[in-house]
Amino acid sequence: MKRIGLNLRIMARAFEIELRQNMTDGFVLFGILIQPLIVAFMALWMLKGKGPDYAIFVVIGSGMTGLWTTLLFNGGNSITGERWTGTLEPLVASPASLRVVIYGKVLANVTQSLLSMIGSYFLISFAMGYPLTLTYPGLFFLSLVISVFSLVSFGLILASFFILIPDFARMVNTLEFPVYILCGFLFPIALLPGWTTPLSYLLSPYWAALALHGAAQGTLEPLQIVGTWGIMAFFSLVYILASGRLYRMILRKARMDATLDIVGN
Amino acid sequence: MDAITVNHLRRLYKSTDGIIKRTTKEVVAVEDVSFEIRQGELFGLLGPNGAGKTTSVKMLTTLLIPSGGSASILGLDVVKDANKVRPRIGFIFGGERGLYWRLSGLDNLRYFASLYYVDEATSKKRIPELLKIVGLKGREREKVEGYSRGMRQRLHIARALLHDPEVLFLDEPTMGLDPVGARELRTTVKNLQSANKTILLTTHYMFEADALCQRIAVINKGKIVALDTPEKLKENVQDLSVVEVELYGIPQEVIDRIKALDFVVEVSIENRDQRQVMQVHTPKGPEAIPVLVEHLNGLRIGRIITREPTLEDAYVRLVGGAEQ
Questions:
Q1: Per residue in B81-96, pLDDT tens?
Q2: How far is B84 from chain A (nearest CA, A)?
Q3: pTM of the prediction?
Q4: Fold annotation for B2-230
Q5: What is the pLDDT of residue A264?
Q6: ipTM
Q7: What is the CATH number of domain B239-308?
Q8: How far apart are CA B238 and CA B189, in angstroms?
Q9: Could you tell me which of B15, B186, B52, B47 has the C-alpha nearest to residue B6?
């Protein structure tokens, strides 16, 4: 019990440190505040023929793009940042579990990216005058909380590759748009070829987008929304359990290959 | 009981080259290194750049897994018991990295305190004490990016002491510091030893090792070439004198010719701006000067002096007279 308390404290401190560092980084602020607004504006323009009901779909979709971009670039890149500052080694050599530290950092990144959803809401609702209503507000907010934890667990796995491969940051660029598309952030996956559907099902951001879109627009029944929570909880559990072994393996490999102090490009 | 035991420690680095036909190259960084450090001892690991000092420290601080041999800290194996070793050691690596520059010194310390499971009450008491010890009191709320190099290095020391570790690893802690900053840091290190901490200090500054360490291991090309007290190491060269000749450009063939003289034990060249200082270790003392000058015929010669050997000369003799 004491151990859990100590780990929660480490997580909270990692959360705070990450948030404070990000707030001084212009690139991060652009990803959270400006990019989703551009996406929202463009999407709304493209989908204006679909009627005003589509506005809430755009708010959530653009918010999800901000969430994913932040998770991908800031969550993972926070490890690259630790390499650049030379703090990855002190982190690994400390008694704290690196998994706990990274969970706190990714949680900070995902939480702050919710700002992009709020930003899109204000842009579309107040500046552009579209009516925004949530069909199931309670289920929507619960879906949001569960989505955040599901995405953070996914980010935990993603971040581990940044520890193993110093240059992994180069590869993540290729993951940004495929996930937007495969997870149905801005248009339904029914528009995609059938063979891509199983891929979407394996990605927790897909279930997060489905739950949020469904609760906001009423395209899912409450029971179906609860079903998506179950799937997200299942994925989160799998990711967290897998991360224990994964981090042990990756840290051992990094210590054998002497890659902890290597600064990637 | 020994605080640190190192047995036949070995570490290889592998690097691969080529895309289709991949070739793997192995470099031995540490080869068959063994030593023990007593509890409360300040032990120096002295060697030139690339000798294997940092690699050895990284293996002992659990950041690298040895390729062979074993090491234990306070009876705990650094590989098998890494999780138990970590709370009991503190370390700093030379240079300015390893801190969050966009945060204040205080934020850095509070964060690392939590990583070392230092509880909030202890942390609140200990951080101001450490800030006072390292001379950063009053500057702790400023961002680290505005700190001088010396201040960052002192913040590193405070970070390493947050959890009051029994064993400290200081890897070239005075690297890049100005003389005043380096002297202050040496005083801090000396005080830590007075507080009965076991300290492993790596440095390539001879006078630093001489002034601080009770015993010194000289490491070169990954191997320990000598291990003794500074006094005993100096005794190895007591039979010799050092002739220093200031030159303005010296060809390699002249150095080789001087090295080949029967009364010359070792020759080292030290670059000082536009000049080189050739240090010749010889039992002949001042009598060697005329012969040396004869061999330097045609070169521009500055000052020539003869002096008693220092620890640095013992070190040069041990690691060979490579250009410093």
A1: 999 999 999 999 877 7
A2: 8
A3: 0.82
A4: Rossmann fold (3.40.50)
A5: 58
A6: 0.83
A7: 3.30.70.260
A8: 29
A9: B52
